[in-house]
């Protein structure tokens, strides 16, 4: 009896679309993260604590500005493509065109803005040498925003195997290019390697999108730009809030603490991403499946509960590993990163909370509670940036990275409680 049930369980897993999508998302993102982590170690050793801190400032600025420029289209396109695959495939071509157009116009505007204010921004930070790297970021922002939108489109198609391939190749390019370019070119060389990896990623993504478009019926409807923008406004505001909060906190660290503390935070953030790589990799999988099953309450609920358990299970083990070996991990980056182990331990702890909130966030998006999610995230982010400013200015910037991470953990816990309260209050699926 037990053997029969075990066989049935294995068969169900093998035939499950959710399992297959999850596997490829995890495999591709996992290997990609490993390669990026290795590249980060190489760059940190070549640049040292302070220059790596400058790299962290520039890279973080790129990531957050690109996220802002994408206007939440990574999630919006996933929801709409997944939804219309089961309802009306003739609308998908329009969704792809509108998504790409919006992302390009928005990111180009953001890139031009950064080029114009690069001097003022670098002077504000007290790092005038960063004016060149900030202007160089303009191209990377466009590439990153388009890639984000493109991954959202592929996620809607359920092409998670292709996304995995893209992440692996991009990570490999970054690792291979980072070694010689950083050694010979320092900060500029590291940024050039980053640009190359983003370009390769973008080209791969749109190759796979073009392949998927061949199987779609002829378009029957006009532009979806207005519809996508209306849906994505609260999503974009959420991303903007998160972007401004995190980027602002990094800027405050740089100004009121030191670029060295930014370097410590950047490394800790990388490892937090590693611990969270499975929940992060599965975020678009979850949204795609929840959106696709929005008319099937039972299947919708089952998917959500399953993914919460999977996220927790897949977060706890790497969290324990990083905590136990935090000192050894810190030693890989060189002797200059004093204080990294305790920041690393604290930051990866927040991943446990984030693994649960990721699923709850996806459910809110799938059922159209965009504005509620924005209100909760905006309140959280405003309080975080306010507390970081207050503590750094009153404590002389000592242990800036540790202070920021501690504040972040407290607010993430309160945010999780707020999500649970809202879910119970609204009375979603019981």
The sequence of SSEs as H and E is HHHHHHHHHHHHHH
Number of structural units classed as domains: 1
Number of strands: 0
Sheet of most strands = none
Q: Quick one: overall form? A: globular
Total helices: the number is 14
Radius of gyration: 21 Å
Distance from first to last alpha carbon? 32 Å
By helix and strand content, what is the structural category?
mainly alpha
Low-pLDDT runs of 5+ residues are none
Quaternary structure: single chain
Mean pLDDT: 80
> Which percent band covers the strand fraction?
under 5%
Helical content (DSSP H or I, runs of 4+): over 70%
Write the layout of secondary structure elements.
Layout: H1 2-15, H2 17-69, H3 73-87, H4 92-124, H5 131-157, H6 160-213, H7 225-256, H8 259-275, H9 277-292, H10 297-324, H11 326-331, H12 340-366, H13 370-394, H14 400-426
Helix pairs in contact: 2-4, 2-5, 2-6, 2-7, 2-8, 2-9, 3-4, 3-5, 3-7, 3-9, 4-5, 4-7, 5-6, 7-8, 7-13, 8-12, 8-14, 9-10, 9-12, 10-12, 12-14, 13-14
């Amino acid at each position: 009896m037990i053997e029969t049930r075990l066989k049935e369980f294995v068969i169900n897993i093998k035939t499950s679309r959710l399992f297959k999508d999850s596997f490829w998302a995890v495999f591709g993102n996992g290997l990609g993260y490993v390669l990026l982590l290795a590249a980060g170690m190489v760059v940190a050793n070549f640049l040292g604590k302070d220059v790596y801190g400058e790299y962290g400032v520039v890279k973080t600025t790129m990531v957050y500005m690109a996220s802002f420029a994408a206007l939440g289209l990574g999630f919006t396109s996933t929801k709409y493509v997944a939804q219309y695959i089961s309802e009306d495939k003739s609308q998908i071509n329009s969704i792809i065109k509108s998504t790409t157009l919006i992302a390009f116009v928005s990111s180009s505007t953001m890139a031009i803005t950064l080029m114009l204010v690069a001097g003022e921004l670098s002077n504000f930070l007290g790092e005038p040498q960063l004016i060149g790297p900030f202007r160089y970021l303009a191209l990377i922002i466009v590439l990153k925003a388009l890639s984000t939108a493109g991954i959202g489109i592929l996620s809607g198609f359920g092409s998670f195997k292709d996304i995995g391939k893209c992440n692996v190749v991009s990570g490999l390019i970054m690792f291979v290019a980072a070694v010689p370019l950083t050694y010979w070119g320092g900060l500029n060389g590291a940024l050039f390697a980053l640009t190359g990896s983003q370009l390769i990623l973008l080209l791969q993504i749109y190759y796979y999108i073009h392949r998927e478009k061949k199987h779609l019926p002829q378009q029957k409807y006009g532009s979806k730009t207005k519809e996508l923008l209306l849906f994505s406004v609260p999503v974009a505001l959420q991303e903007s809030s998160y972007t401004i909060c995190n980027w602002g906190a990094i800027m405050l660290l740089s100004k009121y603490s030191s670029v060295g503390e930014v370097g410590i935070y950047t490394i800790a953030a990388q490892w937090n991403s590693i611990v969270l790589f499975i929940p992060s990799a599965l975020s678009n999988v979850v949204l795609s499946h929840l959106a696709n099953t929005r008319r099937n309450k039972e299947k919708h609920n089952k998917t959500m509960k399953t993914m919460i358990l999977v996220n927790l299970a897949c977060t706890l083990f790497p969290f324990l590993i990083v905590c136990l070996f935090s000192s050894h991990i810190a030693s890989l980056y060189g002797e200059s990163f004093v204080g990294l182990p305790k920041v690393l331990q604290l930051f990866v702890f927040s991943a446990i909370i984030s693994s649960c909130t990721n699923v709850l966030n996806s459910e809110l998006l799938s059922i159209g509670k965009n504005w509620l999610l924005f209100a909760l995230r905006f309140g959280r982010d405003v309080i975080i940036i306010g507390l970081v400013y207050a503590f750094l200015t009153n404590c002389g910037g000592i242990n800036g990275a540790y202070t920021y991470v501690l504040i972040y953990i407290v607010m993430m816990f309160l945010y999780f409680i707020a999500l649970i309260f809202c879910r119970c209050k609204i009375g979603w699926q019981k």
